[in-house]
Design a protein that fits this description.
heterotetramer; A mainly alpha; B mainly alpha; C mainly alpha; D alpha+beta; A: mainly alpha; 15 helices; globular; D: alpha+beta; 5-stranded mixed sheet; 10 helices; binds heme-A; binds dinuclear copper ion; binds copper (II) ion
C-alpha cells in the first residue's frame, strides 16, 4: 500500500491515540525520542543540583540523605532510561529498518510493547520517590540494599527490572530484523556500519539483560523474603551479587557505546564524502567487542574481596577489549585522510566524540591496570572516566545523530549556526566539568561523597561551573531541535549527499518507508564511483 | 509489491514448506526420554563421588538434546537456531566458570596471611 | 496494517515478503526469546552451582526433604506434555485440526497435573516450616540449610510461573485451534508456544536431578 | 576558533601530565612504584592521544571541503596499518598489564611478621583494636618503618578502607575478613576514607592515621590505654569527641543530624509520637543503645545503635551530668567545650 505523495508517517493519521497504538517503527522511534529526552532532562537536573551542592565542602542546601538520593536517581535515570534506550531504541528504531531497506522491524507489536515496558518501568522507578526514595547508587550493592536502604529501593529495583524487558525486546527485534528483513541485494557486507553496531548491541542486549533481570528479581526476593543469596547473615555472599550485577552491567556499557560508534561511522563517512577506511575491521571489531565484553566484568571488583587470580584474569581480558576499540578509532581518523571534510554540526560532534572518547578510553586502561585501579577505584577518577565515555562518547554521538537524522525524521532543517554553538558550549562545558574530576580522583577524593575535604574545594567549584555551561548547551540544543521541528526550513530528501538507504526515500519517509523496495547493488559508502 | 528473495532465502532452505517428521519418531523419542529418566533415578542410588553431578548432568543433557533435536525440530531447521541455543548456553557456562573461578580461589589466593 | 491480515487466505503482515518469510522470522524471534529465557534461568543455575560447591552439606541434607517420587512423576508428566504439544504441531502440519486440539488439551491437562503435584509438595514444605531464607524455622543442625530451600523455592517457583504462563498460552492457541484459525499454511503461534513449552520442559529436565537426586 | 579550543585543552592536559603533581604524598615505597606505572600510562596515552587527535585535526583542516563536488579516492583499507594499530596498543596493554599485576602482587602479599591491627568498619566510623587491648575510634597510630597489617571486618554493610597517600584500598565485607598492609616511611597524619557507599554518612566515615616514631608510638599506646585512669566525665568527653558521635551531634546545643548535647541532662525531652521523658541515666542509655525507641521531635530516626561498653556508657552519662552542673556554676565551661 504505497502512500500518496506528500503523505508521510507523521501526517498519515493524527491524534494521541494513533501514536500510542502505532506499530510504525518510525513513530515508536519518535516516542522513544520524546521519552528519552525528557528523562535526560530530569536526570540532568538531578546532576545540576548535585553539582550545586558540591560547590563547597559541607552543606549548601541539601542534607546528606537527599544528596544520596539525587546521586542514585541521576545514575539510574541516566543509565536505564537515557543511555541504554538512547541509541538503540530511539535512533536505532528509526534508522535500522530504513538502512536495511525494510518496511518495518520484524515484530512491530513487540516493538511497541518494549516502549510500554520502558514507560511502565520508569513510572515504577519514579514512584519509589513517594515511598522514601532510593539511595543505593545505581549499582544496588548488597547488603546495604537489602535492609538499610531507603524505603523506595524495592520499587527502583522492580522498575529497573521492567525496563530490562524493554531492552531485551528491542534487541530481539533488531537481531531478527537484521537477519531476515534486509532488502534484496543487501548482503551482510553491504550493511552500513551503524547496522553492524546495532546488531552487535542487540546481541549483548539479548544475552546480558536477562541476567540483570534475574539479579534484580533475586534482590527483590531478598528484600521481601530474605532468601539470603547475597546476605552474609544467612550464608550468602555479597561479592556474588557484584558478579551477577556486573555480568550485565559491564556488557551494558558497550550497549551504550557500540551504537554510538555506529553513528560516528556514518557521520565521518558522510561528511568526508569518502569510502570508510577498513569497513570489515570496524564491522568485526563491533562483534568482537560484543563477545569479549562479557568476560571483563570483574574489573569493577578489583578491591571487592574477589580472588587475586580472578582479578588478574579480568584485568588481562579487559586489556584485550581495548584493542578492537583502538582499531575503530584509528580507522575513523584514517577515513578522514584525503576526504572532503565539511564542518557541519553533526561532524563537529563526531570530532568531539573521537576526542573525548579517546580520553575516556585511555583512562579506562588506567583503571583496568591492577596497580593503579586500587588507588583510583571509587574515586572521582572513575566518575570522570565514565562521563568521558558516556557523555563525551555516547551523548556526543546522540547529539550528532539527532542533528544528522533530524531532516529525515521531521523533514526539516535546523539552524546551523546555533547548532554549532551548542557543540561549543557542550564540548567546552563538558571538559570544564569533568577534567578536574580526573585530578580530584588522583588526589584521592572518593565518589558518592556529599561532603569532602577543604583541599578539594577549588576543583569542585570549577566542575560545578562547568556543569552550568554544559547544561546551557543542552538547553540551547533543545531549543534548536524544537525550533527545527516546528519552524525549520523544509529539508530535501538527502541534504548531506549520503549513500545509505535511509536517504534514498523522501523526508519524512512514507508509512512503509520506501515507495518502491530498494534493490542494493553496492556498499554503503561508495562516494567516489 | 515486488519482492526478491536474494537475501532472505539464502539460509532458509525450507521456506514455503515445512519439514514434518514421521509420527513414529515422536513416539520413539518420547520412549527414549522416559527410559533416560528411569536411568537418572536408578543411577542416583550409586555414589560416584565427585562424578555424581557430572553423570546426572550428562544424562540430562542427553535428554535435552533429544527434546531439542526432535521435538523442537532443531535437527532439520535452520542451523541459526542451534547457534542461538548453543551460544546462549555457552555464555551461561562462561558466566558460571568465571564466577566459580573466583569462588574456589578466593580463600586460597587472597589469604589474609 | 497487520491487524487486518486474513490468515485463512494465506495473507501475511505487510512488511514481509511471503507467509513463509513471516513464519521463519517469527520462529527466529521465538528462538532469540529462548536464549533470554536460558540466561535468565541460567542465573539461578549458576547460583545453585556456586552454593553447591561452597556448602555441599546443605544440599545433601536439603534433598532428603524432597520426595523424588513427586519429582519423577512430574518429569514424566512434563515429558509427555512435550510430546503432545509436539504432536499438535505435527497434526496441524497434516491439517488434522481435531487431533491437534486434542493434543493441546492433553498438554493443558498435564500442565495442570504438574501444578497440582507442585501444590502438594509446597504445602508439605510449608507444613514442616521449610520456608525460604529468613523465614525458615525447621529444627535442624545443618547450618545455612535455609539457603537450600531458598534455591528450591526460587528455582521451582520461577519454573512454576513459566508453567502457568505456558498454560495461559496453550489455552489461547487451543481456542484459536478450535476456531479453526490454524492449518498447514499458518500455525506460527502454535509453533512458538510449543517451543516455549519445550523450554519449560528442558529446564525441568535439569531441575529434577539437581534438586531431588543430589 | 576550534583549533584554539583544542590547543588550549591540549595545554591543560600537558600541564597536568606530570605524574606526581596531583597524586597525593608518597607515603610508602609501594606508592612510588604505582606512581611510576601511572606516569608510564600517562605518557603512552598522551603520545597515542597526540598522534590520534593531532592526526584528526590535521586531516580535518588539510582536507577541508573546497567545492561541493570534490572527489575523494576510494581507499578501502590497508592491512599493514590495521595490523600496526592493533599490535602496538596490544603490546602497550600487555606491558601495563604485567607491570600492574607485579605491583598488585606486592600489594596483596602480606608480610609475615607485620604489626597487626584489627579494624572494624561500621555505620559510620572505624574502630581499631590493638593486641595490647588499646581500642580507638576514628584515629589510629602506627610506628614508622614497620610493616603493618590491617585485618578488617564489618557487621552490617560494605565499607572500603582507603589511604590515598599509600595508594591502597580494600573493601570491608561482612562475612569475611579482608586485609591490607603498608609500611609507612614518613611520620605524620594521613587521611583515611571510606570508599564504598554505605549510606547517609558515607562521606563522613573518615579516620586519621598517625604515623609516629617508635618512641612516640609507645607513648601513644600508653596514653590511649591510660584513658581508663581519667575521671569518668573526662573519659566520656573523649569517647564523644573522638568517636562518631560528633559526626551527628554538636557538643553545643546547635542541631546537626541529631540534637546538640548542651543542656540535655535533666531536661524534658519531647518525642515524635507526642510522649515525653526526662533525660536521666536510663533515657540516655536507651538513646544510645536503642536509639529507635524514642525519636526526638523534629528529627529522623537516623541514629544507629552505638555499641558502647557498659563502662563507656557510664562515662558518657557522667559527661552529660558534669556538663549540666558546670553549666549551672559557670557558663563559660560550655563555651570552652564548644571551642574544643
Ligand atoms: C560507555 C560506557 C563505557 C565504555 C565504553 C567504557 C570503556 C572502558 N572502561 Fe569503563 N566504565 C563505565 C563505562 C564505560 N567504560 C562506567 C559507567 C563505569 C563505572 C560504573 C560504576 O562503578 O558506577 C566504568 C568503570 C570502569 C572500570 C572500573 C573502575 C573502578 O570502579 O575501579 C574499569 C576498570 O577496568 C573500566 C575500564 C574500561 C576500559 C578498559 C574500557 C575500554 O573499552 C576502553 C578502550 C578504548 C581505548 C583504550 C581508547 C582508544 C584506544 C587508543 C587510542 C589506543 C592507544 C591507547 C593506549 C596506548 C592506552 N571502566
Ligand atoms: C548517560 C549517563 C550520564 C550523563 C549524561 C551524566 C551527566 C552528568 N553527570 Fe553523571 N553520572 C552517571 C551517568 C551520567 N551522568 C552515572 C551512571 C553516575 C554514577 C551514579 C552512582 O554513583 O550510582 C553519575 C554520577 C555523577 C556524579 C558523581 C556523584 C557522586 O559520586 O557523588 C557527578 C558529580 O559531579 C555527576 C555529574 C554529572 C553532570 C554535571 C552531568 C551533566 O552532563 C548533565 C547535563 C545535562 C543536563 C543539564 C540536562 C539537559 C537536558 C535537556 C535540556 C533535555 C533536552 C536534551 C537534548 C536536546 C539533547 N554524575
Ligand atoms: Cu562506610 Cu562508606
Ligand atoms: Cu566495565
Amino acid at each position: 500500500m504505497a502512500s500518496a505523495p506528500g503523505v508521510n508517517y507523521l501526517n498519515e493519521s493524527s491524534g494521541l491515540w494513533s501514536w500510542l497504538t502505532t506499530l510504525d517503527h518510525k513513530r515508536i522511534g519518535i516516542m522513544y525520542m520524546i521519552s528519552v529526552l525528557s528523562f535526560f532532562l530530569i536526570g540532568g537536573i538531578f546532576a545540576l543540583l548535585m553539582r550545586l551542592e558540591l560547590i563547597n565542602a559541607g552543606k549548601l542546601f541539601i542534607e546528606a540523605n537527599t544528596y544520596n538520593q539525587f546521586m542514585t536517581f541521576h545514575g539510574a535515570i541516566m543509565t536505564f532510561m537515557v543511555i541504554i534506550p538512547g541509541v538503540p531504541a530511539f535512533i536505532g528504531n528509526f534508522i535500522l529498518p530504513l538502512q536495511l531497506g525494510a518496511k518495518d522491524v520484524a515484530f512491530p507489536r513487540v516493538n511497541l510493547l518494549s516502549w510500554y515496558c520502558l514507560m511502565i518501568g520508569a513510572i515504577i522507578s519514579f514512584s519509589s520517590l513517594i515511598f522514601g526514595g532510593a539511595d543505593t547508587g545505581w549499582t544496588f550493592y548488597t547488603p546495604y540494599s537489602i535492609d538499610k536502604a531507603a524505603g523506595g529501593t524495592l520499587l527502583m529495583v522492580l522498575g529497573a527490572f521492567v525496563m530490562g524487558f524493554s531492552s531485551i525486546l528491542t534487541g530481539l527485534n533488531f537481531v531478527a530484523t537484521t537477519h531476515r528483513l534486509r532488502a534484496p541485494g543487501m548482503t551482510f557486507f553491504r550493511m552500513p556500519l551503524m547496522v553492524w553496531a546495532l546488531y552487535s548491541t542487540a546481541i549483548i542486549q539479548i544475552i546480558a539483560t536477562p541476567v540483570l533481570g534475574i539479579t534484580l528479581l533475586l534482590l527483590a526476593l531478598e528484600k521481601i523474603l530474605g532468601i539470603g543469596f547475597f546476605d552474609p547473615k544467612l550464608g550468602g555472599d555479597p561479592v556474588l551479587f557484584q558478579h551477577f550485577f556486573w555480568f550485565y552491567s559491564h556488557p551494558a556499557v558497550y550497549i551504550m557505546i557500540l551504537p554510538a560508534m555506529g553513528i560516528v561511522s556514518e557521520l565521518i563517512t558522510t561528511f568526508s564524502k569518502k569510502q570508510v577506511f577498513g569497513y570489515k575491521a570496524i564491522a568485526f571489531s563491533s562483534v568482537g567487542i560484543a563477545a569479549v565484553s562479557f568476560f571483563v566484568w570483574g574489573h569493577h571488583m578489583f578491591v571487592s574481596g574477589q580472588s587475586l587470580w580472578a582479578a588478574w584474569l579480568f584485568s588481562l581480558i579487559t586489556m584485550l577489549v581495548g584493542v578492537p576499540t583502538a582499531i575503530k578509532v584509528f580507522n575513523w581518523v584514517a577515513t578522514l585522510y584525503q576526504g572532503s571534510i565539511e564542518f557541519r554540526s553533526p561532524m563537529l560532534y563526531a570530532f568531539g566524540f573521537i576526542f573525548l572518547f579517546t580520553i575516556g578510553g585511555v583512562t579506562g586502561i588506567f583503571l583496568a591496570t591492577l596497580g593503579t585501579d586500587v588507588h583510583f577505584h571509587d574515586t572521582y577518577f572513575v566518575v570522570a572516566h565514565f562521563h568521558y565515555v558516556m557523555v563525551g562518547g555516547t551523548l556526543m554521538a546522540i547529539m550528532g545523530g539527532i542533528y544528522y537524522w533530524l531532516p529525515k525524521m521531521f523533514g526539516r532543517m535546523y539552524n546551523e549556526f546555533l547548532a554549532q554553538m551548542t557543540f561549543v558550549l557542550i564540548f567546552l562545558g563538558f571538559n570544564v566539568t569533568f577534567f578536574p574530576q580526573f585530578i580530584l580522583g588522583s588526589m584521592g577524593m572518593p565518589r558518592r561523597y556529599y561532603n569532602y575535604l577543604p583541599e578539594y574545594e577549588s576543583l569542585n567549584q570549577i566542575s560545578t561551573f562547568g556543569s552550568w555551561m554544559i547544561g546551557a548547551g543542552f538547553f540551547l540544543a533543545l531549543g534548536v531541535i524544537i525550533h527545527s521541528i516546528t519552524r525549520g526550513e523544509k529539508a530535501p530528501d538527502n541534504p548531506w549527499g549520503s549513500k545509505t538507504l535511509e536517504w534514498q526515500t523522501s523526508s519524512p519517509p512514507p508509512h512503509e518507508n520506501f515507495r518502491e523496495t530498494p534493490v542494493v547493488t553496492g556498499g554503503p559508502y561508495e562516494f567516489s564511483s | 509489491m515486488e519482492s526478491s528473495k536474494e537475501s532472505h532465502s539464502s539460509h532458509a532452505h525450507a521456506e514455503g514448506e515445512h519439514h514434518t517428521l514421521p509420527f513414529n519418531v515422536y513416539l520413539s523419542v518420547f520412549a527414549t526420554l522416559i527410559f533416560l529418566t528411569i536411568i537418572t533415578v536408578w543411577v542416583a542410588q550409586f555414589n560416584f563421588g565427585a562424578f555424581n553431578g557430572l553423570v546426572a548432568m550428562g544424562i540430562a543433557t542427553l535428554k535435552a538434546a533429544l527434546v531439542g533435536m526432535y521435538f523442537m525440530h532443531l535437527k532439520y531447521d535452520n542451523k541459526l537456531y542451534s547457534v542461538v541455543l548453543v551460544g546462549s548456553v555457552g555464555f551461561l557456562i562462561l558466566f558460571w566458570f568465571f564466577t566459580y573461578f573466583d569462588f574456589i580461589t578466593r580463600i586460597s589466593e587472597s589469604s589474609t596471611l | 496494517m497487520s491487524s487486518a491480515v486474513n490468515r485463512t487466505q494465506g495473507e501475511y503482515a505487510h512488511h514481509y515478503d511471503s507467509a513463509a518469510h513471516e513464519f521463519e522470522t517469527s520462529k527466529f524471534g521465538v528462538w532469540l526469546f529462548m536464549a533470554t529465557e536460558i540466561l535468565m534461568f541460567g542465573g539461578l543455575f549458576v547460583a545453585y552451582a556456586l552454593f553447591a560447591s561452597r556448602y555441599p552439606e546443605i544440599f545433601e541434607e536439603g534433598s532428603t526433604f524432597l520426595n523424588w517420587k513427586y519429582g519423577a512423576a512430574n518429569t514424566v508428566i512434563l515429558l509427555f506434555s512435550s510430546l503432545t504439544i509436539a504432536l499438535s504441531v505435527y497434526f496441524l502440519q497434516k491439517n488434522n485440526t481435531k487431533a491437534a486440539a486434542l493434543n493441546l488439551f492433553i498438554t493443558l491437562l498435564c500442565a495442570g497435573g504438574f501444578m497440582g503435584i507442585k501444590f502438594i509438595e509446597y504445602s508439605h514444605k510449608f507444613h514442616e516450616h521449610l520456608y525460604p531464607g529468613k523465614y525458615f524455622s525447621h529444627e535442624t543442625t545443618v547450618e545455612n540449610l535455609a539457603l537450600y530451600f531458598s534455591l528450591y523455592f526460587s528455582m521451582t517457583g520461577l519454573h512454576g510461573l513459566h508453567v502457568l504462563i505456558g498454560m495461559g498460552l496453550i489455552t489461547w492457541i487451543l481456542i484459536r485451534t478450535l476456531r479453526g484459525e490454524f492449518h498447514s499454511k499458518y500455525y506460527t503461534p502454535v509453533e512458538g508456544v510449543a517451543l516455549f513449552w519445550h523450554l519449560v520442559d528442558l529446564v525441568w529436565i535439569y531441575l529434577f536431578p539437581l534438586l531431588y537426586l543430589v | 576558533m576550534l583549533g584554539f579550543i583544542f590547543s588550549s585543552l591540549f595545554n591543560l592536559i600537558f600541564v597536568n601530565a606530570n605524574a606526581s603533581t596531583y597524586m597525593p604524598f608518597q607515603g610508602t615505597e609501594l606508592s612510588e612504584s604505582i606512581d611510576s606505572l601511572y606516569g608510564f600510562l600517562i605518557i603512552t596515552s598522551l603520545i597515542s592521544f597526540v598522534l590520534l587527535i593531532g592526526g584528526m585535526i590535521w586531516f580535518a583542516f588539510k582536507y577541508k571541503r573546497r567545492t561541493d563536488n570534490d572527489s575523494t579516492p576510494n581507499i578501502h583499507g590497508n592491512t599493514a596499518l590495521e595490523f600496526l594499530w592493533s599490535f602496538i596498543p596490544f603490546v602497550i596493554f600487555m606491558i601495563v598489564f604485567v607491570w600492574g599485576i607485579i605491583i598488585h602482587k606486592d600489594m596483596r602479599n602480606m608480610p609475615k611478621d607485620a604489626f597487626e591491627i584489627q579494624v572494624t568498619g561500621y555505620q559510620w566510623g572505624w574502630k581499631f583494636d590493638y593486641k595490647s587491648g588499646v581500642q580507638t575510634n576514628g584515629e589510629f597510630a602506627v610506628p614508622v618503618g614497620v610493616p603493618v597489617k590491617l585485618i578488617m571486618k564489618s557487621d552490617e554493610v560494605l565499607h572500603s578502607f582507603f589511604i590515598p597517600a599509600f595508594r591502597i584500598k580494600q573493601d570491608v565485607v561482612p562475612g569475611i575478613y579482608t586485609s591490607l598492609w603498608f609500611n609507612a616511611r614518613t611520620p605524620g597524619d594521613y587521611q583515611v576514607f571510606c570508599t564504598e557507599y554505605c549510606g547517609t554518612s558515607h562521606s563522613n566515615m573518615l579516620a586519621t592515621l598517625k604515623v609516629m616514631a617508635p618512641n612516640d608510638f609507645e607513648n601513644w599506646l600508653i596514653e590511649n590505654s591510660k584513658v581508663k585512669d581519667l575521671p569518668l566525665a573526662e573519659r566520656g568527653r573523649l569517647i564523644i569527641e573522638k568517636g562518631t558521635c560528633v559526626s551527628c551531634h554538636n557538643i553545643s546545643n546547635e542541631r546537626k543530624i541529631g540534637p546538640g548535647f548542651a543542656g540535655l541532662w535533666g531536661s524534658n525531652r519531647e518525642f515524635a509520637d507526642g510522649s515525653s521523658a526526662v533525660a536521666d541515666e536510663n533515657y540516655i542509655r536507651e538513646s544510645i543503645l536503642y536509639p529507635a525507641k524514642k525519636i526526638v521531635k523534629g528529627y529522623a530516626n537516623q541514629m544507629n545503635a552505638q555499641n558502647l561498653s557498659e563502662s563507656e556508657l557510664q562515662a558518657v552519662i557522667e559527661y552529660f551530668k558534669a556538663q549540666a552542673s558546670s553549666n549551672e556554676s559557670n557558663k563559660d565551661t560550655s563555651m570552652n567545650l564548644r571551642e574544643q
